[in-house]
Amino acid sequence: MPVQSFKVNGGHVDVEAPDDMALLWVLRDKLGITGPKYGCGINVCKACTCHVDGKAVTACSTRVMDVRGRQVTTIEGLANGSTLHPVQQAWMNLDVPQCGFCQPGQIMAAVDLLRRTRNPTDADIDAIENVCRCGTYGRVREAIKAAAAMMG
Amino acid sequence: MEHPESGAGPTPAPSHDEPPGMRRRDLLGYAASAPLISAAAGLGGLAAPSSARAAILPMTPPDTTDLIDIGDAVTVTALPTMPLVKVSNLANGRVRLELPRFESGQGIATAAAMMLADKLGLPLNAIEVGSADASPELMFNQLTGGSSSVRSLHAGMPLIGGLATGSANAVVGQRVTRLDALDIVTGRKKFTLDQAVPDAKPTMVCRPPTINGQFVRINNTTAVMGMPGVLGIAPIPATNGIVPTPPGVAVMAETFGQAWAAVNALDVTWTAGAVAGESNASIQQQLKSALLPFLLPPLGALTVEGEFEFAAVSHCPMETECAIADVRADRAEIWSGLQSPIVTQQAVAADLGLPLDKVKVHAVPSGGSFGRRLFWDATLQAVQVSKALGRPCRLMYHRTDDMRHGRVRPPMFHRARATMLLGQVISFEQRIAGVRLDTRHGFGEMLGAAAIALPNGFPQTVGNFAIEQVMFKTMVASPYNFGVTTKLLTPVAMDINTCSYRSVHIQPSRLVEEILVDEMARALRKDPVAFRLEYLRLPRARAVLKAVAEAAQWGKAMPAGFAQGVGVHQESKSFTACIVEIDARVPTDLKVTRATIAIDVGTPINPSGIEAQMQGGLCESISIVLTAGLHIQNGLPLEGSYSQYHFARMKNYPKDVKVIIMPPSSGEAIGGLGEVGLSASSGAIANAYARATGKKPRSFPLNFPVDFTPIPPGKLPTPVVVPVPA
User: Fold this and answer.
1) The domain B70-186: what is its CATH number?
2) Which positions 616-675 of B are in contact with A (Cβ < 8 Å)?
3) Which domain holds residue A43?
4) Domain coordinates in residue numbering, chain B
5) What ipTM describes this predicted complex?
């Protein structure tokens, strides 16, 4: 079986996996990195959102062969040690989560949005498709704006 | 006197000796507060009003829920074992509570910690809350449902964790962040499938093409066993336990992706399920024909009435059904999201022939539940797979199976009629037929569950019928004084997998009533808010309505295609009102643009959590009123993912939402919260739609096209590959 080599949250990994295996299963089932969640498997709910070289992808719909040699960041790798990323801090300040299952994906999507747009408009935020069944959307919106302000 | 034009029945000529503007409270001065049926029995004379008619107009008798509701029942039965709830002293002066309720996002763990902190005189950060394993000694005190958790724990707090040493309300009432928020935002919170259980291998299940089709044979075992990563294939046997084990063929593999591929490669022969010939239309037709008649004849009076259809809806928690089971010859261990852990433990022990104390059940806080995890379907299957394959099993439903083969809120049909006489509402009757609600979880114990369960394979039993009726009677109530008020439920036996859904019968029942309240007001040419203020039974209900009417500027001018809508609700000793604004210019793309919600829970524990529940309730109402429903067709829901089942996304949630928490009401019992946020917002949305479009809302969800290509029955979707950005 081929060995897939890439970085996860700053560390190098070599993992045996077929080329076309979804990154989500490599992370969760082979590497034990459980922050990215399964919610649909077909790039719909976005609960597995991670970053590849800083850009958002849905791990359920990303082949592991496509991240070889690249830097994968999951929710576990977002904070700088015990210092939260401003988006995580905004999430805490506004008490955004309810059940919490979609929130790693929501946060990774928000960080990606703020990378692309320093001051996102409501329309930019509306374009986030991550499903939250608990209905935290209003707080997610507020937290993105608060994080944008924090990040200047 | 003007004759309102929108009533369904002929309007009697007013009599000359009674001023048309006579106030209801005048009439009520004559009224007798009699039990419902005897009051109704004396109503024959209403058809021919006489000079004595005022004397026979009945006042609405106290509703069942005014006397006892489901939360009271849980509180009373839970109290005796509250001293057994585990509280332990940790190092550094910290205290740990093993919460005998199930946290799935509602915020009950945080609320419980706040109450305990105050009792012990500790800061909140000195309290940690775990999720209690199934603890049979907590008889009737480890079931989560009915918005009763904080109510029952509040009542039981004097009995939990020894003597009180603190002073009240240092923490309670403060706005605090969820206890698990830091774990959530850093990805450290461990849900069921995140648990580190060595060698528990990913398992997915091949399902029949129709609901509850039964397994006959696998036609290509060898080929599938040879697929990459596949470790084992196991048809799941139909056990004869409290609830049937859902039919399927499990595939265990090294990764979920490989299990998924193998499931789609399986060639399995199935029988057709018992409802293979049924579709939404035929189900609704059967429900309609099962409705009980109204008590009162039309009386020749002004009436407002309607028939309402509700498609099945999916709980669709973000975390699909899942469980880990490690079954050995002499013991078993389970990890799963469980609202009813004790009966789960009892059922697993019975299935495996093990003593109860050899089955350890960990109730793992879940990614949403909304009632779905009252049952333990995934656990039943994981147990059978682990037993058959001789190794621990990590079983997960694909989203498609969670929507198609998981449990649903029953499809329902309602008929309701309000009768008005001389400008006054004198009766409101509602008849409901629904596919029978599976209540075989009982009250969380084998004792109740066994009585409901047998014999297996039958979709309805006397016990199940009784429990559903008890739930209906102790939950569904009217906040209004509408004279003769009757609400009767007819469950219809059909082999569809159902389960209580957040607020159970309340949201559809109250939505229907709130819609007809607006139509009554229109028939009587009254403003919807003023009309409600006139007829609401209780001051706290009027207070929340006044609060939203003022904050939302009720009655302000709106452009064409836009409208406000209002709803009021009481449930679980809490009161709430909601006013929304809707943009209905594009009837197929309805947008709720603003919402104002007032909530009175008696004693607020955590304002942030209260607002979160109301915001979540609003989001759920937007979804199930406007767009989210299941098309059952030939015995299977067509919807198989969030791209097809249209639960609200960010763009569907209004940008202007205000939640008003009413100040603590002295002397009032603490109210429930988890399910309370649905009904007023649902009513407000439907009424705004009616006012904006001129159409009567009658079929839910309102926008319900099949706007997708269904995944083939019996199959999972094909995985998607998206290119990685450069």
Assistant:
1) 3.30.365
2) 616-620, 641-643, 647-655, 657
3) 3-77
4) 24-59, 70-186, 194-274+321-396, 280-314+407-700
5) 0.99
